[in-house]
Amino acid sequence: MKPLILASSSPRRISLLESLGFPVKIAKFETDETFAYSLSVEEVVMELAQRKALNALHHVKGVEEGIIIGGDTVVVLDGEIMGKPRNEEEAFSMINALQGRTHDVYSGLVCIDYESQKQLVRWKRTKVVMKHIDNDTIWRYIKSGEPMDKAGAYAIQGIGATFIEGIEGDYFNVVGLSLSLLSDMLKAFGVEIL
Ligand SMILES: Cc1cn([C@H]2C[C@H](O)[C@@H](COP(=O)(O)OP(=O)(O)OP(=O)(O)O)O2)c(=O)[nH]c1=O
After folding, report:
1. According to its UniProt record, which residues of this chain constitute the active site (predicted)?
2. Cα–Cα distance between 85 and 40 in angstroms, integer?
3. Is ipTM > 0.95 here?
4. C-beta 24 within 6 A of ligand 1
5. Based on the number of CB atoms within 10 Å of its own CB, is 158 exposed (0-12), middle (13-18) or buried (19 or more)?
6. In the chain, what are the domain boundaries?
7. Is the shortest distance between the CB of 84 and ligand 1 below 6 Å?
8. Ligand 1 in contact with 10 (CB < 6 A)?
9. What is the CA(86)–ligand 1 centre distance, in A?
């Protein structure tokens, strides 16, 4: 089987991919994550995931062969895209905006076959309903450190789970890598999970 090369340093994406039982190689390189505001959310997550994957492809050329996987996750409330907070104040305003409301989490996923250079680019959306959270609780959460490297400043898989009323869609898409979508994409490259 072709090795899977993950263009990501996200510990969540690494352990989700490893949970499928395949050996995973990591090829993460600094990628510009700015985007044009004229793009739709779907285009943003696909473009950023693609940039990460193409960057890895460029760097592993002649060194590693396999299927390169790139991903990107954002939170969207009222059409506004939230990435990772730059500081604690921004984390506060993100969670404060999300609490008591329903938002969408979009993840883009890209697979590139090194050998054929064939590319597949997809996206997926999950709806998340968050409970009301008071200001003191938000600040205690921020002080836990958990929100700082997460889109929308919360982690559904961590203490942030206590804020979540429910979701509609794929849980793993919120954590950053839909294993269901990935398995469909890998199938197109001749890779069967089972
Ligand atoms: C909403 C949400 C996001 N996240 C994470 C998933 C992503 O890792 C992160 C969004 O940032 P990304 O830019 O998608 O990824 P990253 O910077 O962590 O990793 P890399 O660019 O190396 O692939 O937020 C959670 O872990 N839990 C959640 O509930």
Report:
1. 72
2. 21
3. yes
4. no
5. middle
6. 4-187
7. yes
8. yes
9. 14
